[in-house]
């Protein structure tokens, strides 16, 4: 039903007041299904000055009957001085959540603009963006894709004008496998429309986006017959690889040590070491001693339990009795609250460099995620300004930093195995993993564990690489790691484009 309002018009006529009422239609905030704006820009990246275009807008999702079911919002950056587009790589970028917009990597990592924050990633005013001299736009064109209900992306009405039910939307869009299926269709349409079939292609995903792109690698091969050169996993989730029980508990210790080291909460002998000297020591202890001890459970001898508790306490910055009372298994939420409890501060979940303050010092978890509030503080005004005022895309639809996509169907998550299978079928396909040492949500040692278990045979180990950074979940917010992580990505792209006439074969 159309919304209506009454417009009251008052006019003075002589000494009398004439009042009239007319019914008019209120505008509705709707997104166009298929609409773009193209703007021209120039920048200097990695020492090169060049022009590029930004195509901003929507492209439909089509169902099997060819009907548009959703409008996906995207931004596509294309370098303009390229002579042979067939040789020009295309980087297709997704963020995670699920339910998160493709804003984080767009205006803080790989895109031609980066967020105005200080060198460690904290908000500064005035809000906005600045040129990103480290963007990989010098070596690859980039498209940032917003899944349904994120950014400006929205479901469309049915042919008869009615809306899809919540259950229908979940089956169509909101689950591990539904998400991969419709996004693969969308990518096919995008590549076809923009004539990029011959280009080397890369997927990059952050956080839950790593689950997404791991699944897409095989879905694109098997259903769209589109073969990739690379998949980049930034702060990866478990991608369907099981690591429960003792493994889950043990894998946290290297992250605990990193966070404690950053906050100067370790003993002087450990604190005097560089982080990259300390972490290999903790990793070895985790695999050789801590994990086997946790696996013994209640059968662990009391004397050995005391020894383990003492060493875990030393590496984590916690008290030995606290570790014992936790039965050697320390939850991350408790760690974020406990590490600096005596200082009256909590540490961040996604980036433990960030500090918070709680109502009470007692309790088992922080009141809020200090890093996320900081990020939303700076990202939200920046993306709303940038899209509208610099890229010229204007709409009254709300930009969803996080959109309504839950409940999310997480069943049958085989995305890690799907990535392995895609690699096995495609000798060109390589994987790069990027993680921040201070990320407590998708910790770097879990990412290494993924790397070890994606391919149990070990025959593709030379096609999977890992890079770590002295920051958190969004490692690129720290100025030095923005440079390093982009350069690692740039080198990965260059290294995974095969030589001319090099065949894809074993």
From TrEMBL:
GO molecular function: serine-type carboxypeptidase activity
Keyword terms of this UniProt record: Carboxypeptidase, Glycoprotein, Hydrolase, Protease, Signal
Organism per entry: Pseudidiomarina andamanensis
Residues spanning the signal sequence: 1-21
Lineage: Bacteria, Pseudomonadati, Pseudomonadota, Gammaproteobacteria, Alteromonadales
InterPro entries: AB_hydrolase_fold, Peptidase_S10
BP-aspect Gene Ontology terms: proteolysis
Protein name as it appears in the record: Carboxypeptidase
């Amino acid at each position: 039903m159309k919304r209506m309002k009454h417009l009251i018009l008052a006019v003075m006529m002589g000494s009398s007041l004439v009042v009239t009422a007319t019914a008019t239609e209120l505008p509705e905030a709707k997104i166009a299904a298929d609409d773009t704006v193209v703007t021209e820009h120039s920048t200097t990246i990695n020492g090169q000055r060049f022009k590029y275009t930004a195509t901003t807008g929507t492209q439909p999702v089509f169902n099997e009957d060819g009907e548009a079911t959703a409008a996906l919002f995207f931004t596509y950056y294309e370098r303009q001085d390229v002579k042979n587009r067939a040789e020009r790589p295309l980087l297709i970028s997704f963020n995670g959540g699920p339910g998160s917009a493709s804003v984080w990597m767009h205006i803080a990592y790989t895109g031609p603009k980066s967020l105005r924050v200080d060198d460690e990633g904290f908000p500064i005013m005035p809000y906005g963006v600045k040129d990103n001299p480290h963007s990989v736009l010098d070596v690859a064109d980039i498209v940032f894709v917003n899944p349904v209900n994120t950014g400006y992306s929205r479901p469309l009405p049915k042919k008869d004008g009615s809306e899809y039910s919540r259950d229908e939307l979940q089956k169509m869009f909101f689950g591990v496998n539904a998400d991969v299926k419709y996004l693969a269709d969308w990518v096919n349409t995008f590549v076809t429309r923009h004539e990029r079939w011959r280009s080397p292609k890369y997927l990059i995903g952050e956080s839950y986006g790593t689950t997404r792109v791991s699944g897409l690698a095989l879905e694109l091969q098997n259903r769209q017959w589109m073969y990739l050169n690379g998949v980049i996993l930034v702060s990866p989730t478990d991608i369907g690889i099981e690591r429960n029980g003792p493994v889950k508990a043990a894998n946290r210790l290297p992250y605990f040590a990193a966070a404690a080291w950053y906050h100067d909460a370790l003993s002087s002998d450990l604190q005097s070491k560089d982080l990259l000297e300390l972490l290999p020591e903790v990793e070895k202890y985790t695999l050789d001693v801590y994990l086997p001890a946790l696996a013994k459970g209640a059968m662990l001898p009391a004397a050995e339990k005391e020894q383990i508790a003492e060493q875990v306490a030393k590496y984590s910055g916690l008290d030995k009795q606290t570790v014992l009372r936790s039965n050697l298994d320390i939850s991350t939420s408790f760690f974020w609250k406990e590490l600096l409890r005596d200082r009256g501060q909590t540490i961040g979940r996604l980036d433990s460099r960030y500090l918070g303050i709680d109502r009470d010092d007692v309790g088992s978890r922080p009141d809020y995620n200090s890093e996320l509030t900081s990020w939303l503080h700076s990202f939200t005004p920046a993306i709303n300004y940038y899209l509208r005022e610099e890229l010229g895309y204007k709409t009254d639809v709300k930009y969803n930093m996080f959109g309504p996509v839950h409940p999310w169907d997480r069943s049958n998550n085989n995305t890690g195995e799907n990535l392995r299978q895609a690699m096995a079928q495609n000798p060109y396909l390589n994987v790069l993993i990027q993680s921040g040492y201070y990320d407590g949500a998708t910790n770097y040692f879990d990412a290494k564990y993924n790397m070890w278990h994606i391919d149990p045979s070990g025959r593709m180990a030379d096609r999977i690489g890992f890079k770590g950074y002295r920051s958190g979940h969004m490692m690129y917010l720290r100025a030095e790691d923005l440079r390093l992580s982009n350069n690692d990505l740039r080198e990965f792209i260059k290294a995974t484009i095969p030589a001319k006439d090099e065949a894809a074969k074993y």
